[in-house]
Amino acid sequence: MLELRPNCECCDRDLPPDSVEAVICTFECTFCADCANNILQGVCPNCGGNFVPRPIRPAHLLTKYPPSQERVVKDNGCVAVES
């Protein structure tokens, strides 16, 4: 089951469970769409994979399957991908 991490690893922006701005990679690294597209250029800095929109868990299941409360933030933020 997805952790639904609460924030962007780059800018620490809040990404609630119903956020349409959250994207994840295959390892559930979580970023906001702005950082993923404009800073990381669609490439996860942790694994090198791509991003997809994070699914939205239906509200009626959040009590039974709550999102993660653990915030993950890269120590120095994110660095633009070299082209």
Relevant CATH superfamily of the domain at 1-58: Zinc/RING finger domain, C3HC4 (zinc finger)
Gross morphology: elongated
CATH class of the domain at 1-58: Alpha Beta
CATH topology (fold) name of the domain at 1-58: Herpes Virus-1
Structural class call reads: little secondary structure
End-to-end CA span? 34 Å
- Average pLDDT number: 93
Percent helix: under 10%
User: What can be said about the biggest beta sheet?
Assistant: 3 strands, antiparallel
Side by side, the strands of the main sheet go 2-1-3
Please provide the ordered H/E string of secondary-structure elements.
EEHE
Ranges with pLDDT <50 over ≥5 residues?
A: none
In DSSP terms (H or I, runs of 4 or more residues), the helix count works out at 1
Beta content comes to 5-15%
User: How many strands?
Assistant: 3
CATH architecture of the domain at 1-58: 2-Layer Sandwich
Radius of gyration: 12 Å
SSE topology sketch:
Layout: E1 22-24, E2 30-32, H1 33-39, E3 52-53
Antiparallel strand pairs: 1-2, 1-3
Task: Write out key terms for the chains shown.
83 residues, little secondary structure, Herpes Virus-1, 3-stranded antiparallel beta sheet, 1 helix, 8% helix
